[in-house]
Amino acid sequence: MSLYGEWKDCAFDISDSTTISDACDLGNNYEYIQVIYPAMTACTMSVYVCSSLGGTYVPLGNSASATVGASASADTYAIGGYQFIKLISSTAQLADRAVIVRGLRA
To answer: Domain with 16 in it: what CATH number?
Structure first.
């Protein structure tokens, strides 16, 4: 039986950064995250993780990335039990982006 967390905002606020999302507290440690991307400036998205909300975020690894673009899309990433994440865009986003995520335990 899978256990899903609540959907959380992990938005890109271009007044803060055009390539780094807001930090997202998933509310618990999860093995996976599901991400729903809106239409975005074409880029590769990567997952960064941290042991605390306000700490230093580090890349999760090469397997946690996806190419997104002009159409909305969704993806699932293995995050290995982390609770705090940020999404990183390889290309500057030209407008705010409302990305949502939720944790998943298999």
So the answer is: 2.60.120.260
- Domain that includes residue 81, residue range: 3-105
Chain-centroid distance of CA 13 in Å reads 13
The answer to whether 31 and 83 have CB atoms below 8 angstroms apart is no
pLDDT at 106: 83
Which residues of the chain carry a pLDDT beneath 50?
A: none
DSSP string, the chain: --EE---EE--B-TTT-SSBPPPEEEEEEEEEEEEEE-S-SSEEEEEEEESSTTS--EE--TTSEEEE-SS-EEEEEEEEEEEEEEEEESS--SS-B--EEEEEE-
